[in-house]
């Protein structure tokens, strides 16, 4: 399986590798186009931490007559419009009102957005016990209880565990349906960073009046078919035996060490029409082996005729460095007590208009619609509040007229999070 190169754009800088270190003289490489595309294709708007949720319940209601309930939990992500998006289901545990499910629920934790979760527990009817859980029709099952929380509420706990009350009528009833404990844990791959140094030898020259200007593009083959770009090295000019700068990538970008990878070598052209020199299909496990054995792997050139074999080239790819490192993550910091604060300053000068006028940025709409200031403060505060223990946020105003009639250019008060009102 191959990956096309017609979509490769950008300049000579590396994409997806190690960020510039203090003292580097190279210009800022700008947006990381490969990583942005990698995340975008999966619906992730930004960087994330892969998490696994473990679930256990206690004191569940018994809805069976001759035995005990057979519980299963369904986990949803609640969207801004209130719609529920299912992200996973546990297995069914037979005859148990104190279940501890084995099946983990995978979710990507994104610090910069609120991720409200909804947990619904069902008693699964006997006729569904041999049916894959994804095929179980929830309308045919007995509802046992529902719990709600934000993912941030779990990961900010030192234990990364949170016990929630189950409600008997989907969030609005009496708390008599038992409890649900949710434990969040980072997947091992998200805590591992791989540092690599690649070099090549005897590359084919694609230029007439000089030597090729090679760079590498690493892509991951996905189950659905095709490739997703993971990383692009910088361009080494006029060199058929290049060694590239170190690149550093999280293990989650590779999926697993066994996941197939395509490494392509291109001759850079400033018009964006880069010429393929050769490619190899490999894996991170194979890359590690090449480093240990100090051996290389030959590039091949894909045949235009599917009946012919790819041509093996003289050029080889070597791995000068392969290092796996365990790194502390954002979740490690916040679960250990690290807090974030939110400070805001609001402009009350006359430039914002008469606050009684609907055209003013300070206008308080009787319908409850938020003005621009309220909306900005609410959207940021709704995220940050989970990372602050007392949920008090200092706020300043300037250019406002105080009750005394004096115009002040600096006054302060604290705002309590709406969740604790």
From TrEMBL:
In terms of InterPro entries, this protein maps to:
C2_dom (IPR000008), C2_domain_sf (IPR035892), C2B_Copine (IPR037768), Copine (IPR045052), Copine_C (IPR010734)
> Which source organism does the UniProt entry give?
Kalanchoe fedtschenkoi (Lavender scallops)
Gene3D superfamilies hit by this protein = C2 domain
Identify the Pfam families for this entry.
C2, Copine
Extract the GO molecular function terms from the UniProt entry.
calcium-dependent phospholipid binding; metal ion binding
Question: Which named protein is this?
Answer: C2 domain-containing protein
**Location within or outside the cell:** Cell membrane
Family statement drawn from the similarity comment of this UniProt entry: Belongs to the copine family.
Keywords, ordered alphabetically: Calcium, Cell membrane, Lipoprotein, Membrane, Metal-binding, Plant defense, Repeat
- Look up and give the membrane topology term: Lipid-anchor
> SMART domains recorded for this chain?
C2 (SM00239)
Q: Name one GO biological process term.
A: cellular response to calcium ion
Pull one GO CC term from this UniProt entry. Answer: plasma membrane
Record PROSITE patterns: C2
> Region Disordered: which residues?
1-29
Reading the lineage from the top rank, the first entry is Eukaryota
Q: Domain named C2: which ranges?
A: 28-164, 176-298
């Amino acid at each position: 399986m191959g990956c096309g190169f017609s979509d490769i754009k950008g300049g000579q800088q590396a994409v997806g590798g190690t960020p510039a270190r203090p003292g580097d003289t190279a210009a800022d490489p700008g947006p990381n186009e490969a990583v942005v595309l990698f995340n975008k294709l999966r619906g992730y708007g930004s960087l994330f931490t892969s998490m696994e949720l473990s679930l256990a319940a206690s004191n569940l209601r018994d809805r069976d007559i001759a035995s005990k309930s057979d519980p299963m939990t369904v986990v949803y992500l609640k969207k801004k419009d209130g719609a529920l998006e299912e992200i996973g289901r546990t297995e069914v545990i037979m005859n148990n009102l104190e279940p501890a499910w084995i099946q983990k629920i995978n979710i990507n934790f994104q610090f910069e957005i609120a991720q409200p979760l909804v947990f619904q527990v069902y008693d699964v009817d006997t006729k569904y016990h041999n049916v894959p859980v994804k095929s179980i029709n929830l309308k045919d099952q007995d509802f046992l209880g529902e719990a709600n929380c934000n993912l941030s509420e779990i990961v900010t706990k030192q234990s990364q565990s949170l016990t929630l009350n189950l409600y008997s009528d989907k969030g609005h009833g009496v708390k008599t349906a038992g409890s649900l404990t949710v434990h969040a844990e980072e997947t091992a791959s998200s805590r591992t960073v791989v540092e690599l140094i690649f070099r090549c030898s005897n590359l084919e020259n694609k230029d007439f009046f000089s030597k090729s200007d090679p760079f590498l593009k690493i892509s991951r083959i996905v189950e659905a078919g095709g490739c997703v770009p993971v990383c692009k090295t910088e361009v080494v000019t006029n060199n058929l035996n290049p060694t590239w700068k170190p690149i550093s990538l999280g293990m989650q970008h590779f999926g697993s060490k066994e996941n197939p990878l395509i490494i392509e070598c291109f001759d850079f052209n400033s018009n964006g029409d880069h010429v393929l020199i050769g490619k190899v299909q490999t894996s991170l496990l194979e890359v590690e082996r090449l480093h240990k054995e100090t051996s290389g792997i030959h590039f091949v050139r894909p045949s235009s005729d599917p009946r012919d074999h790819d041509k093996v080239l003289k050029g080889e790819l070597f791995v000068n460095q392969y290092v796996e490192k365990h790194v502390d993550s954002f979740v490690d910091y916040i679960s250990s007590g690290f807090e974030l604060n939110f400070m805001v300053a609001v402009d009350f000068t006359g430039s914002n208009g008469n606050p009684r006028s609907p055209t003013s940025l300070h206008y308080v709409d009787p319908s409850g619609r938020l003005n621009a200031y309220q909306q900005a403060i609410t959207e940021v505060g709704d995220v940050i509040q989970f990372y602050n223990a007392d949920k008090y946020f200092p706020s300043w105003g300037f250019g406002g007229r105080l009750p005394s009639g004096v115009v002040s250019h600096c006054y302060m008060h604290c705002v309590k999070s709406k969740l604790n009102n």
